[in-house]
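Researcher: Predict the fold of Cell division protein ZapE.
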Amino acid sequence: MSRTSTGIVRLTDRHPQVTGAEMVAALTPPPQFDGATFATYRADDAYPSQQEAKDLLEKFSGGGAVPARGGLFRRAKREPEMKPGVYLDGGFGVGKTHLLASIYHAMPARRKYFGSFIEYTALVGAIGYQKTVELFRGADLLCIDEFELDDPGDTMVMTRLIAELVPTGTKLAATSNTPPNALGEGRFAAQDFLREIHAMSAHFQTLRIDGTDYRQRAVDGHAIVLDSEEYEAALADAAGDTLVADDEFAALVAHLATVHPSRYIRLIEEIGAIGLRDVTTFDDQSAALRFVAFVDRAYDAQIPIRATGVALDRVFRDDMLAGGYRKKYLRAISRLVALTHSPVGA
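Model: Structure tokens for Cell division protein ZapE follow.
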């Protein structure tokens, strides 16, 4: 993503539009994972499941074959056949997206796609379900990052899309903070479409990846809050080298409601730093979830954030953190803390 412009703009002045063709072209790993490989994934020795997942995923991607056992007159032990999909389940910050991008880069596939759950469902909304099926039919690999359940309709669309693609030979790889048979727990009446969820689960081998959030290992655990003078100075310094967004927090949150989450990546296109004035705590869960989606895209693009007001790791109320979207909020908090510590132009 080019960042050649300098100066200060407002995200609230931007109204991005994205065509179906542009959405398809964007189905590649985020810039920060352009060079992600299994070799660059650093498994934590304290959590053996990380190395185990890495080894299995290398095999899934076409490498790392287990050597045949047995001598000249002994039949080699046959390895159990893998399912067409792998599902990486674990907490945030344990490297699931890195491993997902490693699969994408390692698999010698002619047609492969990498996108977040919300990007795939937005594509269905833009070009229609049948055209989406036709587009992906025969694809070698579909990587789905952040497979999370916000809307039962979206989940049913994805489970049925997966069911149509698997028989055509498409391999699947997905990440989530929730195992596939637990999607929807604590959020709404998941029994209404439990059959579809179980059908999807049958296509995946679930790999549990344990560990601690690597972002929290790198910072002191709290989002940085600036006073007004520090904020003005930080944005002025950044604006000399890159394009900086400077918005009132409440105004940006309201603006996010007018932009489809699939377009948030275009909302921050060419932005090198994000400034948020007078941050406040969320009262509305829908607004909070839109902000989570915005944070995800800002983190994918590795855009530093500078802010005044309430610390960004305190914007979600305790009752939100105790609810069904707890893991989404905690992931966003982890990313917000990291982005407030990130230097501009790194």
